[in-house]
């Protein structure tokens, strides 16, 4: 294999490039990124990057994933700000939006996912939060004085953004269509506990109600109008249209006044550029357990990959899948599998939520340390509450673990689950 192309220059793409070099690939390496930015860490965008506090400070150098020395050592050709338009399998080339083509023997698809948006014309003041440009545009509005902020969606991005907005002194309401935020991930009992963090943080939480539409008015003056990138372009489009958001209309008829709306309703895998290729796509690029597609010279990793029937938008998936994917790519067939134990975390209202494992409906849940009454602490002073540790169980076995501000015992249970999973895969 003489040339490998990595399409996607975010977390999974960078880790794939690292693995290629670590596993001995010394040929030409080309990394293509749709954004103009070098790889950066996304989790801080909804937290410290917005508030300018902690390790996720607004200084963009703090979110860089690779320094100049490592970038030089990778010896890759970086084509940033270049969006892939199509894949020509017969010609073994990736075609870019600007008409350029890049030829290679191997391909790593790491194009990630894009934030879902609400239908309707653009309005100034309406944001998503997925990219650095999204975060820049939102931060510009949040630093212009007190705002009435409505966050649509109570998932991780919505909850973390709401937490950051209230920390900045804004009036915040979260609208969640499900009966509880995070109920699909945590189950109703623990989701109810974690939902209490919103109230403790001073945020109104409206559940079980959808959004009928957004209201707008003439005379927009979007703070993000001068921001570069796609987010800035959308805001500028809204400003040119002369309308800014004024309210969110709910499906039950209520009207929530709003100066800023953040839409956090999930993400869609970036697979449009693969239309017409032989690769199978169904909510992500379909791969076997080793991240290998129907074509052995093509693998997929990260948010865009549906590995063994599962697509996981987790930081750990993006960092762990590339090892197996690259090994299989260089071998020319599947010799390794990527079965990381699902793990995610979220920082909200001064508390850290951590979850690992495979919970299923019907699993029982048991608190083994601490109490939900110990949540809270003093976020303004950086003091966490006592928190709790809960385990999910089925047929006498632990299937998953949840912790709020109980990092050390959580890691112990997580390691145990990972060891059990490894033994299960090994047939022990």
Automatic annotation (TrEMBL):
Cross-referenced InterPro entries: FAD-oxidoreductase/Apoptosis, FAD/NAD-bd_sf, FAD/NAD-binding_dom, FAD/NAD-linked_Rdtase_dimer_sf, Reductase_C
Domain Reductase C-terminal, residue spans: 343-423
Biological classification of the source: Bacteria, Bacillati, Actinomycetota, Actinomycetes, Kitasatosporales
Entry's Gene Ontology molecular function annotations: oxidoreductase activity, acting on NAD(P)H
Organism: Streptomyces venezuelae
Ranges annotated as spanning the membrane: none
Domain of life: Bacteria
Cofactor: FAD
The protein's name: FAD-dependent oxidoreductase
Coiled coil: none
Domain FAD/NAD(P)-binding, first and last residues per copy: 3-321
SUPFAM superfamilies hit by this protein: FAD/NAD(P)-binding domain, FAD/NAD-linked reductases, dimerisation (C-terminal) domain
Pfam families per UniProt: Pyr_redox_2, Reductase_C
GO CC entries: cytoplasm
Keyword field: FAD, Flavoprotein, Oxidoreductase
């Amino acid at each position: 294999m003489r040339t490998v192309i990595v399409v996607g220059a975010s977390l999974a793409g960078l880790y794939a490039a690292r693995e290629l070099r670590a596993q001995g690939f010394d040929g030409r390496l080309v990394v293509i990124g749709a954004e103009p930015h070098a790889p950066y860490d996304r989790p801080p965008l909804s937290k410290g990057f917005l508030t300018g506090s902690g390790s996720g400070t607004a200084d963009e150098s703090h979110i860089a994933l690779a320094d100049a020395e490592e970038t030089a050592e990778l010896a890759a050709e970086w084509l940033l700000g270049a969006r892939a338009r199509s894949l020509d399998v017969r010609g073994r080339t990736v075609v870019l939006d600007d008409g350029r083509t890049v030829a290679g023997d191997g391909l790593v698809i790491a194009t990630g996912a894009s934030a879902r948006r609400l239908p309707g014309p653009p309005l100034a003041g309406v944001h998503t939060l997925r990219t650095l440009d999204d975060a820049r545009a939102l931060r510009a509005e949040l630093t212009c004085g007190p705002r009435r902020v409505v966050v649509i969606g109570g998932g991780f991005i919505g909850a973390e953004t709401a937490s950051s907005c209230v920390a900045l002194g804004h009036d915040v309401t979260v609208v969640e269509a499900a009966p509880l935020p995070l109920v699909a991930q945590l189950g109703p009992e623990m989701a109810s506990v974690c939902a209490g963090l919103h109230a403790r943080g001073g945020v109104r939480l409206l559940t079980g109600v959808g959004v009928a539409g957004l209201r707008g008015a003439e005379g927009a003056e979007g703070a993000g109008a001068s921001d570069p990138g796609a987010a800035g372009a959308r805001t500028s489009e809204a400003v040119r249209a002369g309308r800014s958001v004024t309210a969110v209309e709910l499906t039950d008829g209520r009207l929530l006044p709003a100066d800023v709306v953040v839409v956090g309703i999930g993400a869609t895998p970036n697979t449009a550029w693969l239309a017409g290729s032989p690769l199978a796509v169904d909510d992500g690029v379909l791969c076997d357990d080793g991240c290998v597609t129907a074509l052995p010279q093509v693998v997929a990793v990260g948010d865009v990959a549906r590995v063994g029937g599962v697509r996981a938008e987790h930081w750990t998936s993006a960092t762990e899948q590339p090892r197996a994917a690259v090994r299989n790519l260089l071998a020319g067939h599947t010799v390794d599998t990527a079965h990381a134990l699902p793990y995610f975390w979220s920082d909200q209202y001064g508390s850290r939520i951590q979850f690992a494992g495979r919970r299923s409906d019907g699993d029982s849940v048991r608190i083994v340390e601490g109490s939900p009454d110990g949540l809270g602490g003093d976020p303004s002073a950086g003091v966490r509450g006592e928190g709790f540790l809960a385990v999910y169980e089925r047929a006498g076995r632990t299937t998953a673990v949840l912790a709020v501000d109980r990092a050390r015992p959580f890691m112990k249970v997580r390691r145990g689950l990972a060891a059990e999973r490894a033994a299960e895969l090994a047939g022990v």
